[in-house]
């Protein structure tokens, strides 16, 4: 059961940052739901909800400190609610992987 969810009628903001890896390059991406069309917004909300983003606890995973790992930082803010996850590549649960891949793809598109 989802404890919390992004509501379609309420604006939300997402900040995504990917850093580290072999090249050490940092890319980031910001999304304001008001700037998305309805289809994009629905896709993104579906990814957030299916990832269990608001259910994830940072205590569930411990850092492995492996060399050249990619590090991800994701913040979702909506009204007075804010959640930030920071994960290394080795810590990503399967449930949240599709959401991270989507954000990473979008960040790379805007970087070019």
Ordered list of secondary-structure elements with their pairings:
Layout: E1 13-20, E2 27-32, H1 38-51, E3 70-78, E4 81-88, H2 94-111
Antiparallel strand pairs: 1-2, 1-3, 3-4
Helix pairs in contact: 1-2
What does the model show?
By secondary structure, this protein is an alpha+beta fold. The chain has one domain (13-103). It contains two helices and four strands. It has a four-stranded antiparallel beta sheet with strand order 2-1-3-4, covered by helices on one side. The longest helix has 18 residues, at 94-111. The chain is globular, with a radius of gyration of 14 Å. The mean pLDDT is 83.
Task: Describe the strand arrangement of the main beta sheet, using strand numbers.
Answer: 2-1-3-4
DSSP helical segment count = 2
Structural class comes to: alpha+beta
Spans of at least 5 consecutive residues with low confidence: none
Largest sheet: 4 strands, antiparallel
Total domain count? 1
Summary of the model, kept short:
The protein is α+β, with helices and mostly antiparallel strands. It contains two helices and four strands, in the order ββαββα. It has one domain.
Main features:
2 helices; 4-stranded antiparallel sheet; 4 strands
């Amino acid at each position: 059961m989802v404890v919390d969810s992004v509501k379609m009628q309420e604006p939300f903001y997402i900040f995504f940052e990917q850093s580290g890896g072999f090249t050490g390059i940092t890319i980031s991406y910001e999304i304001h739901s008001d700037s998305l069309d309805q289809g994009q917004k629905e896709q993104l909300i579906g990814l957030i909800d299916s990832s269990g983003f608001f259910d994830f606890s940072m205590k569930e995973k411990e850092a492995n400190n492996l060399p050249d790992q990619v590090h991800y930082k994701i913040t979702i803010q909506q009204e007075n609610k804010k959640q930030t996850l920071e994960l290394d590549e080795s810590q990503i649960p399967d449930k949240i992987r599709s959401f991270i891949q989507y954000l990473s793809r979008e960040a790379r598109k805007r970087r070019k």
